[in-house]
Amino acid sequence: MILVVPMDPTFLPEAALLLAGVLGFAFALRLLVIRQAGRAMGIGAASLACIALGFLMARTLHKPSEPPGLTPAAANSMSLVLGDVVLRVAPSNRYAFSVNGKQFLDLDLKRSKLRVSCVVGAENTVTTVIDQNTIPLSRRGIRPSNLDGHTLLLQDEGMETFRIQYAEPRRIEVAGQMFEGTAGGPTIISFQKGIHWSGGDLQPGTVVDLRGQGSGMIDFGRSGSVRIVSRDSEVARR
């Protein structure tokens, strides 16, 4: 009879029990040869018990490990997905965005409802203004499409010009072009296939962690930087 024990460090206790059982059983046989039956019976019983316990432990104590699971996002983090670029920021009831200090987008999350305000553009032209989710329907035939209760979509002649989605409590997605004001001029920023503004570019898939900077205006700077500007410094600058 050949005893096979997996050669794994986790099976060392079982291997030790089996080895002790085999050696003890051999010693019990030797005692029988020299006519010490009493001692042989005791040692033989103990040896069989060690062998049985080793097999039992090998069968019951070593279950296959479960595959690694995914953990939810931290409760102290919000993901703002802008043109497939992820900004990780601290939770807040409002997110305001600016380029070189000029605000172009406001996300209001008071009372757990998302309301957006911005000037939407397409092909470097202002198309409409969104004010707390209110959209004037008379401008250029822009029409909102209510896909579901989590998405605001604007289309111009069948082409998507702006989309914002709030389907998860800690994730907001925005795509489109926006202006700082209604006067027109060059597009101040684009959340389409990355983030593009006069000071820099961020490619799709980029992750920027701003949680350590606290709360305030999310500003895209001239040197390509993305940072949090405190409310106090914004008021002082104005």
- Summed up, the helix count is 3
Low-confidence stretches: 234-238
Distance between the termini: 89 Å
**In percent terms, what proportion of residues is strand?**
35-45%
Order of helices and strands: HHEEEEEEEEEEEEEEEEH
Number of domains: 2
What class would the helix/strand composition place it in? alpha+beta
What does this structure look like?
By secondary structure, this protein is α+β, with helices and mostly antiparallel strands. The protein folds into two domains: 9-60; 78-237, no CATH class. The chain has helices at 12-33, 37-60, 231-237, and strands at 78-82, 85-89, 94-99, 102-108, 115-122, 125-130, 143-148, 151-156, 159-168, 171-179, 189-191, 195-197, 200-202, 207-209, 217-220, 226-229. Helix 1 packs antiparallel against helix 2. The longest helix is centred in the first third of the chain and has 24 residues, at 37-60. The radius of gyration is 34 Å and the shape is rod-shaped. It starts with 11 loop residues before the first helix and ends with a helix. The model is unreliable at 234-238 (pLDDT under 50).
Question: What key phrases describe this protein's structure?
Answer:
single chain, 238 residues, alpha+beta, 16-stranded mixed β-sheet, 16 strands, rod-shaped, disordered C terminus
Give the structure's gist in a few sentences:
It is built from 3 helices and 16 strands. By secondary structure, the protein is of the alpha+beta class. The chain has 2 domains: 9-60; 78-237, no CATH class.
Secondary structure: elements and pairs:
Elements (H helix, E strand, L loop, with lengths): L11 H22 L3 H24 L17 E5 L2 E5 L4 E6 L2 E7 L6 E8 L2 E6 L12 E6 L2 E6 L2 E10 L2 E9 L9 E3 L3 E3 L2 E3 L4 E3 L7 E4 L5 E4 L1 H7 L1
Helix pairs in contact: 1-2
